[in-house]
Design brief:
Helix 3 packs across helix 4 and helix 8 runs antiparallel to helix 11. The chain has 2 domains: 137 residues, no CATH class; 193 residues, Roll (C8orf32 fold), CATH 3.10.620. It has 12 helices and 16 strands. Strand 12 and strand 13 form a beta hairpin. The chain is of the alpha+beta class. A 5-stranded antiparallel β-sheet has the order 4-5-2-1-6.
Length: 359
């Protein structure tokens, strides 16, 4: 890396201070760093969120976060816009917020509407307690070509981690008085990748895949376990695996806030809640049986219903199709297929996601 790329930034963020930083870095030999990022992007085709994790690591090498947070943030912004993304900065006092344009539904973090477009904050977690009424943020205005692409939070594939980076986790559950044991390979790096991942819509996070080694260590074993069972009994097996193989705890106790875990995160963490179980169960049913499903969101609960040839119990009717509720979260009662807890039977709900197999 050319030393000319290293530019200092001190003082309070302002239009002139940020512009001065940008002009210096823009005139430096930053192309070698950008080329390295682009080569990686072309070779491995990471999703936007995973590419941003690479940018974070690159900015950390150039300007460590702990040494100069504002400069670290500016380098992330610079590399992201030079990579073609539509990103922006806002500032108030000593606070510097970094946004990227996204057309998707993103929850639990601030967004900023600029010229009719939605920008999602990428570094709010570093501040958390910002008073947007008291602190009047100004947008940094810059005239440059490029940086026009919207950012997507959808994850379609995970990195090819080195097999040696995986740890093995023993998972056990009891299915009708018979114990089943699984030794699943899990990569702790998953926690780092998703630590600041926001709450996205159900379709996006239910379809986050497993990494390669985790998939190979679990899905074929589950397929063997349900081989010979009817679809109804096989789905029942997957429902009870998801329900009883993991400990339950609300996100408020585990993370101190709402956080939706991907299927692999649910396998990795010791505790998970109903949304996490629903995502894992959905993924397992899709991979093993690929049946139509709907996601039911109650005021205080999330669950999944599956379409069988014939519905079981009291079906959920959606668009004229009957779906069978399959409860993957432990309840006060040991619910069978087609059963809901009494407090949910007459409670209002919405269909948050409808999955239809491609075939």
């Amino acid at each position: 890396m050319d030393r000319s790329f290293i530019t200092d930034f001190t003082g309070v963020p302002s239009q002139s201070a940020i512009d001065s930083f940008y002009q210096k870095v823009e005139k430096s030999n930053y192309i070698s760093v950008l080329n390295a990022l682009n080569i990686y992007k072309e070779k491995y085709k990471p999703d936007d969120w995973l590419y941003y994790q690479l940018i974070r690591k690159t900015a950390q090498q150039i300007s460590p976060k702990a040494e100069n947070y504002k400069r670290y943030t500016l380098y992330k912004w610079f590399l992201l816009i030079k990579s073609g993304y539509d990103a922006m900065l806002t500032f108030a006092g000593d606070q510097l917020l970094f946004y990227v344009r996204s057309d998707e539904n993103i929850y639990n973090i601030p967004t900023h509407i600029y010229h009719g477009k939605q920008y999602v904050c990428l570094n709010f977690h570093d501040y958390k307690n910002i008073d947007f009424v008291k602190d009047k943020f100004s947008a940094f205005i810059i005239d440059f070509s490029g940086g026009k692409n919207a950012f997507s939070y959808k994850i379609t594939h995970l990195p090819d981690f080195r097999p040696g980076d995986y740890l093995e986790k023993d998972i056990r559950f009891n299915y009708y008085d018979q114990d089943y044991y699984f030794r699943v390979k899990l990569n702790p790096e998953i926690k780092a990748i998703f630590i600041n991942y926001p709450v996205v819509d159900y379709e996006s996070y239910f379809n986050i895949p497993l990494s390669n080694q985790t998939y190979k260590s679990l899905i074929p074993v589950l397929k063997r376990s349900v081989k010979g069972l009817s679809k109804k009994n096989g789905v029942d097996y997957l429902m009870r695996f998801t329900r009883y193989a993991f400990l339950f705890e609300p996100d408020s106790l585990t993370f101190g806030m709402e956080k939706r875990l991907s299927p692999e995160q649910t396998l990795l963490y010791d505790y998970s809640d109903c949304e996490d179980r629903a995502a894992l169960f959905f993924y397992l049913v899709r991979e093993i049986y690929d049946l139509p499903m709907i996601v039911l969101v109650f005021p205080t609960h999330v669950t999944v219903a599956v379409k069988f040839d014939k519905p079981i119990g009291t079906p959920i009717i959606y668009n004229g199709v009957a779906y069978t509720v399959c409860e993957p979260t432990p309840q006060k009662e040991d619910l069978n297929l087609g059963q809901l807890m009494p407090q949910h039977r007459k409670a209002p709900y919405e269909i948050a996601y409808v999955y239809a197999p491609k075939h």
